[in-house]
Amino acid sequence: MILHFQDPAKLRTKKIVFEDAYGASDSCTLEQLKELSSKRRSIEESINESSSITEAIAREMSGGLTSHSQQVLQKLEQYLPLLENLIFHVNLVSSNRQIDQWAANLKIQWSSALCSSSFFNLMGPKFFQIGDLKFELQMMLFLYGAILRQRAIEILAEDLVQSATLFREAAGVYHHLAHEDVSASSQAYLLAEKPPEILSSVSTIMNLVCLAEAQAVTIRRAEEKGTSISLLAKLHHGVSEFLDEAAVILYAAIGECKDISSRFVEFISSCRALHRLRGQKYLAESLKTAGKVGVSIAVLRLALTNVKRHMPGEESWKSVFRKEIDDVAEFLRKLEHENGFVWREKVPAGDELPLCEGNKIVSTIPYRPKRWERELAFKI
Question: Tens of pLDDT along 160-173?
C-alpha cells in the first residue's frame, strides 16, 4: 500500500468573468472571452462542488466519463489552451497600463490546499487574491497536476501501469510549474500572505512526491513479477531518496511561506520512513539468503527502532504503518528464534551494518502546454 494524500486537489476558487474585465474591440474577441468564462465556470462548479447538474448529465456532457476526476481533467484540458492564448495576447500589449488594470478587475481568487490555516477556518477556506493572469495559470496547472495524482490513486488497484504513468504526467506538470516562466509577478512573492502553491519550491516538492509515488507503484508491479529481493530493496530506498530531496526543499519552503500544512510535512516524512522500512526488510531478506543471519537481525532491529519514531498521527496512515511494523517484527522474531537454535551468529552493532544503495528508475513525463491560437483584439 502507499499512503494517500489528496489534499493538493482540494483547491477552491471564486467566480471570474473575463468579458466584464477585458474590453473587446470586436465580436469575435468578445465571444472568446465569454467562452473562457464558460469553461472556467464549469471548473469552478466541479471543484467548489456547487454544480446543480446530476451525475447522469455530467457523464453525458463529458462524453461518457464516469469518474469525477476524469471529468475535471477534461474541463481543464479544454480551458488551459484558451487561457494560454489570452495570456499570449495580453503579453503582446503588456506595456499598456489598461491591461494591468483589467487583470486586477478580474479579482482572481484561490484558496490554498497546502496552507495550514485553510483547514482551521470556521468561516470557510481562506482566499488569496493576486491581480495577475499568471496567478490563474499557476493555480490551474497546480490543480491539473493534483487531479492527475487523484486519478492515479483511483485506478491503482486495477491498472498499475496506467497509474504510474499518471503519476509521472503529474510530475511533469509540477516540473513545468517549477522551471518554466509561468510564475505570477514578482510582487506576488513579496506578499506577507501567499499560497504555497505559487512557490517554485513547492512545485519541485510535488514533482518529487509524484516521482516517488510512480516508483512505489512500479515496485508493486516488480513484486508481482518476482523481481529479486536485492533489487526491490534498492527500489524502495530509491523512493525514500526522492522524498529525502523533497524534505530538504520543504524545510527551505517553510522559510518562504510559514503557513505550510503540517499534514503535508507529515505525509512526506511518513512516506519516507515507510519505504525505508520496506527497503530494510528486503535488505534483511537478501542478507539472510546470503547466509548473514546475524547482520540481517541487526538490520531489522535498527529499522524497527527508527520507524517507530515516525509513526504518523492520522489513523489511515497509522494502520498502514502498524501492518508493516507487525510484518517486520514477525520476520525478526522468526530470525532470532532460528539464530538462537541453529546459526548462533553474533549480531553486530548498528554502526557495522551495510548501507543499501537506492535505485531511482522512474522519470518525469514532460508537460507540453497547448495554446488555442485565436486572434484577440482589445479596446485600448
Answer: 999 999 999 999 99
Q: What is the 3-state secondary structure (H, E, C) of 245-310?
A: HHHHHHHHHHHHCCCECHHHHHHHHHHHHHHHHHHHHHHHHHHHHCCCHHHHHHHHHHHHHHHHCC
pLDDT tens for residues 117-145?
655 555 678 899 988 899 999 999 999 99
pTM of the model: 0.94
- Cα(160)–Cα(137) distance, integer angstroms: 30
Q: Which H/E stretch holds residue 129? A: strand 127-129
> Quick one: CA dihedral 310, 314, 320, 325, positive or negative?
positive
HEC readout, 75-115: HHHHHHHHHHHHHHHHHHCCCCHHHHHHHHHCCCEEECCCE
At 263, list the grid cell: 499534514
Transcribe 193-205 into DSSP letters.
S--GGG-HHHHHH
Amino acid making up residue 183: S
Q: Which amino acid is at 160?
A: L
Q: CA Rg, the chain, in Å?
A: 24
Superfamily (CATH) of domain 7-227 = alix/aip1 like domains (1.25.40.280)
How do the domains of the chain map onto residue ranges? 7-227
Within 13 Å, how many C-alpha atoms sit on residue 83's CB side? Answer: 25
3-state secondary structure at position 13: strand
d(CA 122, CA 120): 6
Whether 229 and 282 have beta carbons less than 8 Å apart is answered as: yes
